[in-house]
Amino acid sequence: MGLKMNRKVLSLFVLLAITATAQCGNVYDITKYGAKSNNDANQALGQAWKAACASKVPSKVVVPKGTFRLSRAAFFGPCKAPIEFMIVGTLQAPQNPGGFKDGDGWVTFQDIDRLTLDGGGTFDGNGQNVWGKHCTRLNYCSKLPINLRFNFIKNSVIKSVTSLNSKQFHIMVLGGVNLSFRNLKIIAPEDSYNTDGIHIGRSTNISITDSYIQTGDDCISVGDGTKNLTVKGVTCGPGHGISIGSLGKYRNEAPVQGITVRDCTFKNTQNGVRIKTWPNANEGSASDLRFENLYMQNVGSPVLIDQEYCPWNQCNTQNPSKVKLSKISFKNIWGTSSTPLAVNLICSRGYPCQNVEVGNIDLKYKGKDGPAHSVCKNVNVKVTGKMNPSPCKFKA
Ligand SMILES: *[C@@H]1O[C@H](CO)[C@@H](O)[C@H](O)[C@H]1NC(C)=O
Ligand SMILES: *[C@@H]1O[C@H](CO)[C@@H](O)[C@H](O)[C@H]1NC(C)=O
Ligand SMILES: *[C@@H]1O[C@H](CO)[C@@H](O)[C@H](O)[C@H]1NC(C)=O
Questions:
Q1: Is 26 domain-assigned?
Q2: Domain span including residue 230
Q3: Does 263 have pLDDT greater than 60?
Q4: Does ligand 1 have an atom closer than 6 angstroms to the CB of 114?
């Protein structure tokens, strides 16, 4: 009996000790490192991160209330213990985007296991003066920085922060494993160029949930090598909608596999859900793609497969896309389309889409060139439940 009690007391003590360590883990407030609101925080942030990352107990970097200027930052791991980056105030980028190379992040997190980014604060990319000014049509403003880059991050949570007015993509994820993005706000105006909300590439076991994404380009875009991504409870718009691809532009692209987009709302977006691949280009594949329970409000192309994706006629559409698309379903999709072509499934002549299912669609178009209709090419669709617009004559 006595022994049992002792054990219980002991394990309670151990539990309390662990909890206490986690809760009171070292806190590294950037103002303790000399950062002041309305001043430059580069050095203070760097020092706070370095100290926190070296901590053997869970630690926390804190950006408190206030607006701190930051020209750029890279937070590298591996760290010795789980680490939290809590941003309560605002980190603000300079207006001038100089000094960045293609694909650089303004703020980059890299090689970290068990990162938590949270705090309710804002990463302000300050992009208002650069959109459309630093790009040619073919060079996509690639030297403009991406607001937040997550490179090779594992087992981490990114929640309750805002990405504002990014100069280029807001958030880019590369080589991630087991990441949860939730309660995010991503905001830039409709006419901001190339400001994709979240781009995921070469990553596995990722979820994006309960977030608002209003921007000038894709709400979420899924690049090659993405496996097991769930998008749920996201509201998109304005912007270009949720898109898989574009695929096939580059050589040796890895397959896209297991993407679910459900319970999302699209408001005034150019597209709803879209799969896009380049004609006359490289091999690739995307399979096991599910789109369900989606509400469309005044959306340009609510349901779209485009295997002839060729913006600005950069490619030869004579040769078909070599990206194989299979096991795709669009179910329970309703609301209004802003163009009469509500369901548009253009598959590749060389590799017709396999195993495509469409069910319970109810999309209305009110303009004078209506009613809504559907088009399909090189695809044999299985239709279940109600279909409005009525299914086109599906051709294999
Ligand atoms: C995934 O990441 C979360 C958050 O850090 C963690 O709690 C969970 O254990 C991880 N899952 C695996 C399989 O490692
Ligand atoms: C993804 O999650 C599944 C199920 O939890 C797990 O078996 C798999 O190993 C994970 N993938 C990676 C790359 O960690
Ligand atoms: C997919 O990823 C989620 C984490 O986002 C994980 O819980 C689930 O087990 C994974 N499923 C598979 C089939 O790997």
A1: no
A2: 66-75+89-99+115-388
A3: yes
A4: yes
